[in-house]
Write a structure and sequence with these properties.
The chain has about 120 residues and is an all-alpha fold. The relative contact order is 0.07.
Length: about 120
């Protein structure tokens, strides 16, 4: 992690506003409302652990199951969109032409970049 002098000089407790981000992050896989619901369930499990540990564990497991199910669904939907984009380009090209056209190449390059980005994000989890 690099030292950020500007951030270090800010008063304690002062948070950056989202517009001050240096670079935009990747698009979230889940909508924020769904992430918030899952996080709320997880916080509830953590807060009730002392009183009802078994119930808290069941709640945490349920939140985990919900998160993984939604992520798998979101990843499958993302893959389907990517595949549709390049498969459509591939089917529109004449079969005699071994090399894709310039516009096809750009679509393929864009799809490959998106596959790379999402795969790298998955490997960093």
């Amino acid at each position: 992690m690099m030292y950020d002098q500007t951030r270090a000089q800010q008063p304690a407790g002062q948070n950056r506003v989202p517009s001050e981000r240096r670079t935009p992050g990747p698009e979230p896989l889940l909508p924020s409302s769904e992430r918030d619901k899952i996080l709320q369930r997880l916080r509830h499990a953590l807060n009730t652990f002392a009183d009802t540990p078994r119930d808290a564990l069941k709640e945490a497991e349920s939140a985990y199951d919900e998160a993984t199910a939604q992520l798998v669904s979101a990843l499958a939907a993302r893959r389907d969109l990517l595949r549709a984009a390049w498969a459509e380009q591939d089917s529109e090209s004449p079969s005699e032409s071994p090399a894709p056209s310039e516009s096809d190449s750009e679509e393929f390059r864009n799809a490959l970049r998106q596959y790379r980005e999402i795969t790298q994000r998955l490997l960093q989890l």
